[in-house]
C-alpha cells in the first residue's frame, strides 16, 4: 500500500516483521537464510544485531551487556565459537558521557566474560530528539568447530525440544522497570552469553538445530521451525519453566509468557542423544534448570500446547507484540 | 509484591472429575459466556475440547474494545495537539481512517497507559485525553481519576466517555427473538462491582438463568455445571459461583463513585446498535472533564459496518466466528475488519488463536 507506514508491530519479530522482510528487504537482497547468523567461507559465521532498549539500564543488565550477549548468542546458535565483535554507537546529542562510560564498561566486561574481543567500531551523534539516548549495533564473527552443521531440515518427528531454563524473565524485568510498576520480587533479566553452554552441549551429543527465543519468544521460534520443516510440535504446559512472579505479571497484563522475549535462553532440537545433552546442560550454571518441554510430531501441523488441565490449544504466530489488556 | 494465586482452581484431578461429570450431559444447550476474559480463559485452557458436543459456548458482547463504535476512534483522531492516552488493546482497532497505532506512525501523540492515573500524570505536562471505554470493571477507576482531577484542579485532563454497562445489554439479548441462549455465564469482575441483583430481571422476566463465574478452569466448569442443573430443574435463577470474589450486593464504594461522576444514557454498541440506558456519560457537574464537551465532539447515533462483517451476529451469539464469511479469509488479526478480531479477548481473535 502506497501510504502504509512502519508501526511498532513491524519491529516485533513476529508476523509483521516477517512480512516486511518478505515484501521489502528480500525483494532486493534475496537472502540465503533468514536466521540470525550465516556461515561464510566454509567455517566462518557472521551476524549483525541492533540494540534498542528502554530503559537503558534494567535489573540484570543494560544495553551494553545486551549488545554483547545478543551477538554472542546469535553466533552460538549456529554452533560457532564467537571471536570478534565490531560495535557502533548512535548517540543522541545531550547524552551523559558518564552513562556512556558505564555502558561501555559493561560492554567490555560482557566481552571478557564471553571470551570475545571488541576489535573495531564507529561513533555517530544525532541531534537532540532524533534518537532515544543511545542505540548500539554490532557485527559478530565466530568460527565453526569441526563437523558442526546445524540445520532445521534435519529435524525429524520424535526429536525432543530442550530449553535451558525459565521463560519471560527478560521481558517482565524490562516492563516492570520501564513502566515503573514497582513490583518487588520480579526476577532479573536472564541476559547472558550462552556460548560456553553451547560448546558443552555440542560435545555431549548431536544437536540438530538451535535458536534463541528473543523477540517473539518460544512460540515464535517453534512456529518458524514448523514452517521450515513441515512438521508439528507439541509442548506441554506442565513442563514449561515459568517463574511464579512472571506468570502473575503475565496474568495481570494479559500476556502469554510463551511470546515474551528472553535474552539468555535457547531451544535445542535433539534426537536420540537428548538425555545426555540434557545432563551436560544441567552441569552448566546457565543450564541448571534445563528440561525437555515437548517434541516434534508428524501427526500435527503447527504448534500446540497441551495445557496443564489436559486441554489443547494452538500456539499461532502473532502478527505483532502482545498488547496489555483493558481488564 | 505479595504473591497469591488461585492454584487450587487449576487442579488437574478436580478438573478431570468435573469434566467427566459434564461429559454425561446429552441435551443440546447454548450457554453464552458474556465476558471477553471468559472467552480468553476458555481458549487459553483449551476447555471447549473438554466439553461434550451437546454443550455449545457462545461468546457474548463483553469485550469492551469490541463493542466500542467506530466513531469513538474516528473522533479522537481529529484532536490536535493533545496526548491521547488509551488502554493498550484499543490501539489496533480500525476506525474509518485506520487505527490509532497507524495514526501514531503519522505523528499523532498516542500513548498506552496501564491505569487512567497515568493519563492524569501526563496531563501535568500536556493536554491529555483519556479514552474512556470499558464496563463496570474499569469505569470506577476512571471515575475516581476524574474526581482526583477535579479535587486537584487539573485542567489539562479530560475523558472521552464511551463506557458501557452490562445488564441492559444482556436484557436486550434475552429479549431478542432471533437469539436463542439457554443461560448466561455471567461476568466475574463486572459482578464484583455490581453484585448479582441487577441480573435478576433475566431469570424473572425472560426465564433465562445465569451464574456469576470466575476465570479459573474449575470456576468455569463449575459455573457450567450449576447452569446445567438449573436447566435440568427447569428453574432459571441467578447464582454466584465466584463466591471468593463476588458478593451479591457488589462493591458499594465503587457503585457510589460511579453514581457520583457518571450518569446513565442510551449507548451505541458496535455491531449491535443502540441499547437503551446501556452507557455512562459524565455528569454535568464534572463537564470540564468531558472531552466531548471540551472539544465540541459529537458521536453519531448510528454506526455503519464494513460490508460483510458479521461482528454484530457474533456478539449476539447468533453465529460463531467461523460462520462469518470474512473469518480467516479477509479478516485476520493482522488485518482485522471487525473489532472482534482486534482485541485479544474478542471472540473472533480468541477463535482464531485458540480454536483452529
Query: SSE order of chain B in H/E notation?
Result: HEHEHEHEHEHEHEHHEHEHEEHHH
Element-level helix/strand string of chain A: HEEEEHEHEEEHHEHEHEHEEE
Strand order of the largest sheet of chain B: 4-3-5-6-11-10
Alpha-carbon distance between the two ends of chain A: 34 Å
- Global geometry of chain A: globular
Low-confidence stretches of chain A: none
* Largest sheet data of chain A: 7 strands, mixed
Radius of gyration of chain B: 20 Å
Low-confidence stretches of chain B are: none
Please name the CATH architecture of the largest domain in chain A. Answer: Alpha-Beta Complex
The helix/strand class of chain B is: alpha/beta
Largest sheet, strands/sense/barrel of chain B: 6 strands, mixed
Pair with the most extensive interface? A-B, 42 and 50 residues
Outline:
The complex is a heterodimer of chains A (327) and B (356). Chain A is α+β, with helices and mostly antiparallel strands and 327 residues long. Chain A contains eight helices and 14 strands.
Keywords:
heterodimer, A: 327 residues, alpha+beta, 60s Ribosomal Protein L30, Chain: A, Phosphoribosyl-aminoimidazole Synthetase, Chain A, domain 2, 2 domains, seven-stranded mixed β-sheet, five-stranded mixed β-sheet, B: 356 residues, alpha/beta, Rossmann fold, six-stranded mixed β-sheet, five-stranded parallel β-sheet, 14 helices, 11 strands, 35% helix
Amino acid at each position: 500500500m502506497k501510504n502504509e507506514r512502519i508501526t511498532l508491530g513491524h519491529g516485533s519479530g513476529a508476523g509483521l516483521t516477517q512480512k516486511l522482510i518478505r515484501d521489502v528487504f528480500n525483494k532486493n537482497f534475496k537472502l540465503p537464510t533468514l536466521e540470525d547468523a550465516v556461515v561464510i567461507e566454509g567455517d566462518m559465521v557472521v551476524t549483525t544485531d541492533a540494540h534498542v532498549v528502554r530503559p537503558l539500564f534494567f535489573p540484570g543488565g543494560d544495553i551494553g551487556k545486551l549488545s554483547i550477549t545478543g551477538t554472542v548468542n546469535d553466533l552460538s546458535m549456529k554452533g560457532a565459537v564467537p571471536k570478534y565483535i565490531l560495535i557502533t554507537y548512535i548517540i543522541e546529542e545531550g547524552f551523559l558521557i558518564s552513562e556512556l562510560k558505564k555502558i561501555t564498561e559493561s560492554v567490555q566486561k560482557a566481552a571478557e566474560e564471553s571470551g570475545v574481543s571488541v576489535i573495531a567500531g564507529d561513533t555517530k551523534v544525532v541531534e537532540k530528539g532524533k534518537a532515544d539516548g543511545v542505540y548500539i549495533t554490532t557485527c559478530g564473527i565466530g568460527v565453526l568447530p569441526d563437523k558442526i552443521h546445524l540445520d532445521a531440515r534435519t529435524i525429524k518427528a520424535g526429536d525432543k525440544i530442550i530449553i535451558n531454563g525459565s521463560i519471560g524473565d527478560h521481558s517482565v524485568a524490562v516492563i516492570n522497570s520501564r513502566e515503573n510498576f514497582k513490583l518487588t520480587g520480579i526476577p532479573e533479566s536472564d541476559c547472558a552469553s550462552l556460548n560456553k553452554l553451547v560448546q558443552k552441549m555440542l560435545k555431549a551429543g548431536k544437536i540438530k538445530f538451535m535458536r534463541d527465543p528473543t523477540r517473539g519468544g518460544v512460540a515464535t521460534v517453534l512456529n518458524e521451525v514448523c514452517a521450515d520443516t513441515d512438521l508439528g510440535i507439541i509442548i506441554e504446559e506442565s513442563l514449561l519453566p515459568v517463574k511464579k512472579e512472571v506468570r502473575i505479571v503475565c496474568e495481570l497484563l494479559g500476556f502469554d509468557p510463551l511470546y515474551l522475549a528472553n535474552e539468555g535462553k535457547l531451544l535445542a532440537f535433539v534426537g536420540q542423544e537428548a538425555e545426555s545433552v540434557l545432563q551436560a546442560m544441567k552441569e552448566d550454571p546457565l543450564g541448571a534448570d534445563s528440561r525437555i518441554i515437548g517434541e516434534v510430531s508428524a501427526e500435527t501441523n503447527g504448534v500446540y500446547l497441551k495445557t496443564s488441565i489436559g486441554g489443547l490449544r494452538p500456539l499461532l504466530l502473532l502478527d505483532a507484540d502482545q498488547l496489555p489488556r483493558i481488564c | 509484591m505479595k504473591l497469591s494465586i488461585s492454584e487450587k482452581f487449576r487442579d488437574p484431578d478436580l478438573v478431570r472429575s468435573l469434566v467427566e461429570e459434564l461429559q454425561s450431559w446429552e441435551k443440546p444447550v447454548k450457554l453464552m459466556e458474556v465476558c471477553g476474559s471468559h472467552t480468553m480463559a476458555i481458549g487459553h485452557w483449551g476447555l471447549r475440547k473438554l466439553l461434550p458436543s451437546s454443550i455449545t459456548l457462545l461468546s457474548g458482547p463483553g469485550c469492551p474494545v469490541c463493542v466500542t463504535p467506530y466513531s469513538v476512534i474516528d473522533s479522537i483522531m481529529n484532536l490536535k495537539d493533545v496526548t491521547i492516552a488509551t488502554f493498550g488493546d484499543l490501539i489496533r482497532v480500525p476506525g474509518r481512517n485506520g487505527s490509532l497505532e497507524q495514526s501514531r506512525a503519522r505523528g499523532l501523540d498516542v500513548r498506552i497507559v496501564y491505569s487512567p492515573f497515568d493519563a492524569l500524570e501526563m496531563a501535568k505536562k500536556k493536554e491529555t485525553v483519556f479514552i474512556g471505554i470499558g464496563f463496570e470493571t474499569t469505569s470506577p477507576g476512571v471515575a475516581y481519576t476524574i474526581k482526583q482531577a477535579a479535587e486537584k484542579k487539573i485542567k489539562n485532563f479530560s475523558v472521552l466517555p464511551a463506557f458501557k454497562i452490562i445488564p441492559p445489554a444482556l436484557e436486550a439479548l434475552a429479549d431478542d427473538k432471533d437469539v436463542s441462549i439457554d443461560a448466561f455465564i455471567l461476568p466475574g469482575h463486572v459482578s464484583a462491582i455490581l453484585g448479582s441483583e441487577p441480573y435478576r430481571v433475566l431469570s424473572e422476566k425472560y426465564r433465562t438463568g445465569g451464574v456469576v463465574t470466575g476465570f479459573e478452569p474449575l470456576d468455569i466448569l463449575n459455573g457450567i455445571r450449576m447452569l446445567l442443573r438449573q436447566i435440568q430443574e427447569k428453574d432459571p435463577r441467578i447464582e454466584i459461583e465466584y463466591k471468593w470474589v463476588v458478593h451479591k450486593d457488589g462493591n458499594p464504594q465503587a457503585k457510589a463513585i460511579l453514581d457520583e461522576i457518571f450518569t446513565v444514557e442510551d449507548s451505541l454498541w458496535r455491531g449491535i446498535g443502540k441499547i437503551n440506558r446501556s452507557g455512562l456519560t459524565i455528569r454535568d457537574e464534572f463537564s470540564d472533564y468531558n472531552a466531548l464537551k471540551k472539544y465540541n465532539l459529537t458521536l453519531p447515533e448510528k454506526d455503519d459496518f464494513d460490508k460483510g462483517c458479521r461482528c454484530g451476529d457474533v456478539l449476539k451469539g447468533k453465529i460463531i466466528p467461523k460462520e462469518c464469511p470474512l473469518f480467516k479469509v479477509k479478516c485476520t488479526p493482522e488485518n482485522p475488519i471487525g473489532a472482534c478480531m482486534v482485541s485479544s479477548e474478542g471472540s473472533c481473535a480468541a477463535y482464531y488463536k485458540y480454536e483452529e
